[in-house]
Design goal:
The complex is a heterodimer of chains A (about 450) and B (about 375). Chain A folds into two domains: about 75-195; about 225-445, MetI-like fold (Orthogonal Bundle), CATH 1.10.3720.10. Chain A is about 55% helix and about 10% strand. Chain A has helices at about 1-40, 55-70, 110-115, 125, 200-205, 205-215, 225-255, 265-275, 280-290, 290-295, 310-315, 320-330, 335-345, 350-360, 360-375, 380-385, 395-405, 415-435, 435-445; strands at about 85-90, 100-105, 125-140, 145-155, 165-170, 175-180, 185, 190-195. In chain A, the strands form two sheets. In chain A, strands 3-4-1-6 form a four-stranded antiparallel β-sheet. Chain A has a four-stranded antiparallel β-sheet with strand order 2-5-8-7, with no helix packed on it. In chain A, helix 6 crosses helix 18 (about 415-435), helix 7 (about 225-255) packs antiparallel against helix 15 and helix 18 (about 415-435) crosses helix 19. The relative contact order of chain A is 0.10. Chain B is mainly α. Chain B has a two-stranded antiparallel ribbon with strand order 1-2. Chain B has a two-stranded antiparallel sheet with strand order 3-4. In chain B, a hairpin with a 7-residue loop joins strand 1 and strand 2. In chain B, helix 6 crosses helix 7, helix 11 packs antiparallel against helix 15 (about 340-365) and helix 14 runs antiparallel to helix 15 (about 340-365). The radius of gyration of chain B is 27 Å and the shape is globular. Chain B starts with a helix and ends in a 7-residue tail after the last helix. The chains are: A alpha+beta (about 450), B mainly alpha (about 375). The interface between A and B is large, with 107 and 101 residues.
Chain lengths: ~450, ~375
């Protein structure tokens, strides 16, 4: 008896071990990629899970430095007359005399030439170094640890949002630590480099995320592209959810519960359409949109529907599989539901809108989630329809654009990964909140056999 | 009289009114489109001047196009490997997750999560993952370093497991070879032994060069012994992350199917003395036939349409290594700087449609299962 109980426990433990192992397999790449999206260099070798941006000491320092500089602790900046205090520690061997670092505020901005155009005030023109002094020297393992302290002062009367800094020391004098961990260490360890010492907590931790929003702007309008892409995707998803819900339930109801000529043929045609790949019909659909649906769009002053949301919405009014899901649902409702209303002389429309539609909340919920996810993740058709300008891209096409922008010469993976996670966030949140609907959606679409 | 008939007319028209938006979609964006692509496939057309009838020329030309044959081979290999692997993995996952332990719902959700993200998100993450100095190559390096130790660990674990099972069998107790509690015990003991051996210096990881496998920018193929049947490494990488995202979706379908199997079936089988693998092979798998049919059909259709990953990889992988039928069609319609070849695109699209229909039909004959409510 005792043996059996012990064995049952061991069984459960084995199951949990295996569950955890599989979690690592399925969630691992996602989690690792997310942690790396915070890093300055997501392709460092060896890849590590120690992220400077996740160390509480750096959180406190970035908040404090921005505060001292006269900016907001969370969002950063350096106000006029602001002054911040910085400490840095180096190691030297016993036979070497430590030298104070050479401090430079470079004219540097992340994001290259496109971003340089947007800088109105360079920190290099206003920020000066003051009171550089040695504050401590203590013996360590096999040498000395020397700490220097200095202040950065904004001598101008303008607010600065970025204060980059480079410290350079002679060979063999090794960097140990600083008030805020440097973003990069270059020239065989001689130069320690900070993107922004007055970044503030959020831009410091989510540096790559901030870059995605800041560095992608439309050259013609000057507006931030990434925010526009998000807005476009939200707009498209909501519109298409609404049209799908309405039209799919109308068609599903008619196919499930009404008798009319051609019903069988329409349904057979629907099933056939579900088997044909999108890449077959898109050739004609592209032309249909180009010519404005047989010229009809000219009536609304649009010569073509390419590069318009109207085109995407009209071509995606309602999908065959959504109609199929609604038809399946309405077929399962008992006939008595509408019979009494019919006897009272209600019309088909009344029966549909007043009686049947309110009953359809569960499948409509699943359909909402499925459609939202589908539109949000859609790639092929928007790639064909929306080609320019970049302001009109939905998020998926925007991400492709982002990958090209940061992947032209050398891959700058930070912003690419950050953009990726921002775009995945809405569906992940939806998934966590409405998990049940996702599963139902799968089994709804799973009944199509 | 007039009122009554107009009301009756309204009732007669009502179904068509309700269907109107869907019919518009179906007719314009599917029926008309399909018919027109059939027509285009017999013409030469560049999107601007009028189409010119050329008969079967496009169908002959696509087979002479090296890109097309490559695309076909890539698509078919991709379809075979991914559909097989994801179906088996999904079934195994579902069998394993079909238990009543606390928190199982959380794990199901966790496994499913990667599947809700878009193909762009997943592809970008995996491109990063598969970099030359990326996480995967790092893991491979680590595996090489610890290879001997890992094998030793597995060997000891398996040994303990077999000893325990043999002991139970000797005492004539019914026990499965894969008894989880024994497996757990074996792994635990083996881990402690190997870990302390490494900790106290009896075993040390091997020094190896970091793995620098190039996953995307290469035309090398794998596995070598298959000759011309082997696939390119970039395609293999796409296969890996495709399976990774689709297997959990199909797992959910299998789970739903498993929960529909009546308990009495298991109990009857157990009374008959069936155990472990017998139950799975002879009771569960046949019961899941309709689901398997569905999973394989959806898998075949989905994998034959693979496009996104190729487009997102873009110039990072050689075109010939990853081109698929769907991408071939797209690149004929939008060839960048040269003139669009709508005829070729349409002919290959028809080929894709036909191929899909044939393969789905063939598997219907092979698996033969058809769900009852179809």
């Amino acid at each position: 008896m005792h043996d059996l109980k012990a064995r049952r426990w061991a069984n459960v433990a084995a199951i949990y071990c295996f569950l955890l192992l599989l979690s690592v397999l399925f969630m691992g790449p996602f989690v690792f990629a997310f942690l790396s999206s915070l890093k300055d260099n997501p392709t460092e070798w060896p890849p590590s899970l120690l992220v400077n941006q996740l160390r509480p000491a750096n959180w406190a320092a970035s908040y404090r430095l921005a505060k001292q500089g006269g900016g907001n602790g969370f969002t950063g900046g350096m106000g006029p007359g602001g002054s911040l205090e910085f400490e840095v520690t180096y190691w030297t061997s016993p036979d070497q005399e430590p030298v104070p670092p050479d401090i430079v505020i470079p004219k540097r901005v992340q994001g290259g030439a496109v971003m340089a155009l947007r800088v109105t005030h360079w920190a290099a023109d206003y920020v000066q170094v003051a009171d550089l002094e040695e504050v401590r020297r203590e013996p360590s393992a096999d040498g000395f640890l020397t700490t220097y302290r200095f202040r950065l002062v904004n001598t101008g009367d303008v607010a600065l949002d970025t204060v980059p800094m480079d410290l350079t020391v002679p060979m063999r004098q090794q960097f140990v630590s600083a008030t805020l961990s440097p973003n990069r260490i270059e020239r065989l360890g001689r130069t320690q480099s900070w993107n922004n010492v007055s970044a503030g907590l959020l831009p410091y931790v989510f540096g790559n995320y901030a870059r995605v929003f800041r560095e992608n702007y439309s050259v013609s309008t000057g507006r931030g592209l990434f925010l526009l892409w998000i807005r476009n995707s939200v707009f498209l998803a909501i519109t298409r959810v609404l049209t799908t819900l309405l039209f799919a339930s109308m068609a599903g109801y008619a196919l499930a519960r009404l008798d009319f000529r051609g019903k069988g043929a329409i349904f057979a045609f629907l099933l056939f359409s579900m088997m044909i790949p999108q890449q077959v019909t898109f050739i004609s659909n592209y032309l249909v949109l180009r010519d404005g649906v047989f010229g009809l769009s000219r009536l609304f002053g649009m010569p073509t529907l390419l590069n318009t949301y109207a085109g995407l919405i009209i071509s995606g009014l309602v999908g065959a599989s959504s109609v199929f899901i609604m038809k399946q649902f309405f077929e399962r409702l008992p006939a008595s539901m509408e019979e009494s209303a019919r006897i009272d002389g209600a019309s088909t429309y009344t029966v549909f809108f007043r009686i049947m539609l309110p009953l359809a909340k569960p499948p409509l919920g699943a359909l909402t989630i499925l459609t939202f996810q589908g539109v949000w993740n859609e790639f092929f058709w928007p790639l064909v329809v929306i080609t320019s300008p970049a302001d009109k891209y939905p998020l998926t096409i925007g991400l492709l654009n982002l990958q090209r922008a940061y992947g032209s010469a050398t891959f700058d993976w930070g912003p690419i990964l950050a953009g990726t996670f921002i775009s995945a966030l809405p569906v992940i949140v939806l998934f966590i909140v409405f998990q049940q609907y996702f599963v139902e959606g799968i089994s709804f679409s799973g009944t199509k056999g | 009289m007039g009122r009554v008939s107009s009301a009756r007319l309204r009732e007669k028209v009502a179904p068509y009114v309700l269907l109107a938006p869907f019919l518009f979609s179906l007719i314009v964006f599917f029926g008309y489109a399909f018919a027109r692509v059939v027509y285009f496939s017999f013409t030469e057309y560049d999107l601007f001047s009028a189409p010119r009838w050329v008969g079967l020329k496009n169908y002959l030309n696509i087979f002479r196009d090296l890109d097309f044959t490559r695309a076909m081979k890539n698509s078919l290999t991709f379809m075979l490997v991914v559909t097989t692997a994801q179906t088996i993995i999904a079934l195994l996952l579902a069998l394993f997750l079909n238990q009543k332990v606390r928190g199982i719902k959380f794990f199901r959700a966790a496994y499913y999560m990667p599947s809700v993200a878009s193909s762009v998100v997943v592809t970008l993450i995996f491109i990063w993952f598969f970099q030359k100095r990326g996480v995967l190559n790092f893991l491979i390096t680590k595996f090489k370093e610890y290879q001997a130790i890992i094998w030793l660990f597995l060997l000891i674990a398996a040994g303990i497991n077999i000893l325990l099972v043999a002991w139970e069998k000797l005492r004539r107790r019914p026990v499965s070879l894969f008894e989880p509690s024994f497996a757990f015990l074996g792994i635990l003991v083996s881990f402690i032994v190997v870990f302390s051996a490494v900790r106290f210096g009896f075993l040390a990881p091997r020094e190896v060069q970091p793995a620098e496998i190039i996953w995307f920018n290469t035309t090398k193929t794998w596995p070598d012994f298959l000759g011309s049947l082997s696939f390119s490494i970039p395609l293999g990488a796409i296969m890996i992350f495709n399976i990774w995202t689709t297997a959990p979706t199909f797992m959910l379908l299998y789970l739903a199917g498993l929960q529909d199997i009546p308990r009495e079936l298991y109990e009857a089988a157990q009374v008959d003395g069936a155990e472990g693998w017998h139950i799975i092979l002879h009771i569960i798998v046949p019961q899941l036939k309709p689901i398997t049919f569905l999973v394989v059909t959806m898998g075949l259709i989905g994998t034959l349409q693979m496009f996104d990953q190729v487009a997102i990889l873009g110039s990072q992988a050689p075109r010939s290594a990853v081109i698929t039928l769907a991408y071939y069609i797209y690149s004929n319609l939008f060839p960048g700087s040269s003139t669009p070849r709508v005829g070729m695109a349409s002919a290959s699209a028809m080929f894709l449609a036909l191929l899909t229909a044939l393969i789905v039909y063939a598997q219907r004959r092979v698996i033969g299962g058809e769900s009852d409510n179809a």
